[in-house]
């Protein structure tokens, strides 16, 4: 799909924009008047259609595989050739591992999680940061997890990848601050998405209990009693890229319903 010349104004690139949280982030951006570039491995047309009357604010759809540096580099070249400068870069893309102990987890599953969740954001930043507008309140927001702060049984690869992503965010924030580019992380708790429900089913099977029992156990840990709506995560992203967060960088914002207090 070729780049459209409209709308003008600020541009947001949402990597992983076709997933449940990514779509919510795109919706918040277009409602705020941004043009959006949606990048994902699949589901791009459906993501655009989900924006309804705001679909005209989609500037481009880019198929990208975060596991392949050539694919990420091609995304950077496409943006460069279009002349598009990015005001907000949001990295939402992430995968969950099969629920398994360290002794049973396949090395290939560990590598896949690390490739997408940790190496992928590094590659995106390496190839896309030159397209951000310097000295103009440009912003990078990476969607991590509350599991970046503690390990959980059966999800060692996922927790380790998110912990690495949190420290990567801090390192990048220190490097980019002189350019006026802020870098922050949103750390969601459980979100009402297929990934969350699949993880509950997988852990229930690993523990030998029913899905309903596992869901009740997991949700009972949340003081607010429910997982987040994806739009509630998008609201935090929208705050971090906006003027109200102009002096915030290197931070992680908890959006978890109170399941973790820090």
From TrEMBL:
InterPro entries: NAD(P)-bd_dom_sf, Sc_DH/Rdtase_CS, SDR_fam. The keyword Coiled coil does not apply. Keywords: Oxidoreductase. Gene3D superfamilies: NAD(P)-binding Rossmann-like Domain. Pfam families: adh_short_C2. Belongs to the short-chain dehydrogenases/reductases (SDR) family. This is NAD(P)-dependent dehydrogenase (Short-subunit alcohol dehydrogenase family). It comes from Pseudarthrobacter enclensis.
